[in-house]
Amino acid sequence: NSNLSVKSFAIESWIYPRDNRGQAIVEYSSPGTYGVHLWLNVGIDGDAEKGTPGALYANVTSSGAWHQIATSGGAIPLNQWTHVGLTYDQTSGVSRLYINGKIAASANFGTFTPLTSLPLNIGTRHGYARYIFNGLIDEVSVYNRALGADVMEVVLDGEVRIVKTNEGDFTTKAVIVATGANPRMVGVPGEAELRGRGVSYC
């Protein structure tokens, strides 16, 4: 799908891992060609065979270059749900790994076009059964922009909403999303003249 071929991006997912093997969470790849990928139990050296238990790893690959980022070991526990994310902002060159809405690692790779034109695979790498994710993966999302460092996730289920940020979680009964669009005028007399001087919109 061409909508998944992105230059700046955020990839997020919930994971429930059951072992410490190096394994794929999300990966752009086709047989023999590997693009941007987010893996578990792999250290900064990128060695999935050696493994680093509990480390979250990503390679923001471009054509012919690797850009690796990883947390230390022990960051992701076994047998429980953890929210993970990877972002890359092409304008700033900054890539970040997130764990449960908080920045877990950050690197400036510079400006390039990440390799996201390949098929998107969830929990697997083409042709390698040993890298299949052992556990559960849920709610994978790919965005065509790097989500800000402040807000990584908004949970809208239930009466109380949760806004997850890198500074902690915030609860509220309502979330208002201000996208910057122009409000619709209602057409009452004096509305245009008094806009910003007592007449406001939300």
Secondary-structure map with pairings?
Layout: E1 9-17, E2 23-30, E3 33-40, E4 56-59, E5 68-70, E6 82-88, E7 94-99, E8 102-108, E9 120-122, E10 135-143, E11 151-155, E12 161-165, E13 168-172, H1 191-194
Antiparallel strand pairs: 1-6, 1-10, 2-3, 2-9, 3-4, 4-5, 6-7, 7-8, 11-12, 12-13
Please give a structural write-up.
- This protein has one helix at 191-194; strands at 9-17, 23-30, 33-40, 56-59, 68-70, 82-88, 94-99, 102-108, 120-122, 135-143, 151-155, 161-165, 168-172.
- The protein is an all-beta fold and 202 residues long.
- It has a 5-stranded antiparallel beta sheet with strand order 8-7-6-1-10, with no helix packed on it. A 5-stranded antiparallel beta sheet has the order 5-4-3-2-9, with no helix packed on it.
- A hairpin with a 5-residue loop joins β11 and β12.
Question: TL;DR of this structure?
Answer:
The chain is mostly beta strands and 202 residues long. Helix content is 2%, strand content 39%.
Q: Look at the structure and give the mean pLDDT.
A: 87
Low-confidence segments, ≥5 residues, pLDDT <50? Answer: none
Number of strands: 13
Order of helices and strands: EEEEEEEEEEEEEH
**Shape verdict:** elongated
End-to-end separation in angstroms reads 35 Å
Please count the helical segments: 1
Key terms for this structure?
202 residues, mainly beta, five-stranded antiparallel beta sheet, 1 helix, 13 strands
